Fold this sequence. Notes:
This protein folds into 3 domains: 12-111, Fumarase C, Chain B, domain 1 (Orthogonal Bundle); 116-364, Fumarase/aspartase (Central domain) (Fumarase C, Chain A, domain 2, Up-down Bundle); 365-463, Ribonucleotide Reductase Protein R1, domain 1. Helix content is 60%, strand content 5%. The chain contains 19 helices and 6 strands. Arginine is lined by residues 29, 33, 89, 115-116, 119, 323, 325, 327-328. Residues 13-307 form the Fumarate lyase N-terminal domain.
Amino acid sequence: MSQNDQPIKPWGGRFTEATDAFVERFTASIGFDYRLYHHDINGSIAHATMLAKVGVLTDAERDQIIEGLEAIRAEIVAGKFNWSISLEDVHMNIEALLTQRIGITGKKLHTGRSRNDQVATDIRLYLRDEIDSIGKELTRLQTGLLDLAEREAATIMPGFTHLQTAQPVTFGHHLLAWFEMLERDYGRLQDCRKRVNQSPLGAAALAGTTYPIDRAYTAQLLGFDAPTENSLDSVSDRDFAIEFCAFASLLMMHLSRASEELVLWTSSQFSFIHLPDRFCTGSSIMPQKKNPDVPELVRGKTGRVYGHLTALLTLMKSQPLAYNKDNQEDKEPVFDAIDTVKDCLRAFADMIPAIEARKENMYEAAKRGFSTATDLADYLVRKGVPFRDAHEIVGKSVGYGVETGKDLSEMTLEELQQFSTVITDDVFKVLTLEGSVAARNHIGGTAPAQVTAAVGRARGRVAARG
Length: 466
Ligand code: ARG
């Protein structure tokens, strides 16, 4: 302890006065980086193990360090560790306590290492674990979507363009569109993981170290694919964290789109689905209200994740090599992006299986808005009418429908024949919603048979994840 009873700074040797109290608080990261303790301890254990292997530490020293670190880990887990602001960050807090506990051997742990490669290692290890749990939650959500899509493979709803009824589609097909968005997100997450899973340990402060370290060994101990190639790059770049936030932003963008549709569909204007009460809340003033808060919040939380991506890109911009203290600012955006994505995925994965389709409402809505107009045009083309003329004929029929308040399928043959004499009795087959969706029977089409087949292929892709 120093005179003012503050712990002595591990870097205090060349300093002649105490750090300004405000500066101490301003420069400290312990308020948020304590989260890295588990991975910091794992990194230190791997480092000490390697130092013993190459003869820099004795086996006894290694064991003493590992024992000390494990005891500290247990204390942190039990909530008994007092984090100190004057020890700045998680790395120095743990190392200082280790030294306090085991004495001189504790001081040897930092041989051949710097906080610069230490923090880069910790954040990669931490992010890798979170990537794996996010991947699992994403899989749970996607599986829920596939189950619902399978159940609703033949349920007819309006498909929209410009949020106006365009053509009938199946609800299962709509859900599979969400699945595909998330499938690409999953791919991006795994791609990001490859670049996260490289070991910067051994890069030391910036130039490497004079000790005979074995970087491949620490990489292997920590489950990294390989050591990074360049020490300057290793301690300075946070592109892997930016990449994670880019993944997170795209995922949130997709979840926000699905959220928006859930909000619309639960409204009394649409009333396409029923969302159980446990996912909704009420209004303190309007007793009749049941609000879709969960999807609305997911939609809203998208903004903060985009913010974190922008923050990290801006943090990294124009930074000269190698480590700069700027990089301490990488943690809060990454942590919050992780927390937000996990919560939103959990909300969605819990909510999707609970959705109940209001099939009659969907069907009625699909019937309004002349959603089979394109089918009538295609019918005319099959009877030899050029497509542009067919478009014109159907346009006139729709105009008549608007005037008389009738859907195309509700007109008599005579009424339809006013617009084209090639129309015969068989037209009614294509004007039904069932006929319309069943006719789009190719890969990627909305026909119930295609939805069922697509669900089967998608299940295969999910199963192959292992
Ligand atoms: N707390 C620091 C960070 O998060 C650790 C690295 C400090 N390195 C240094 N040279 N000051 O970036």
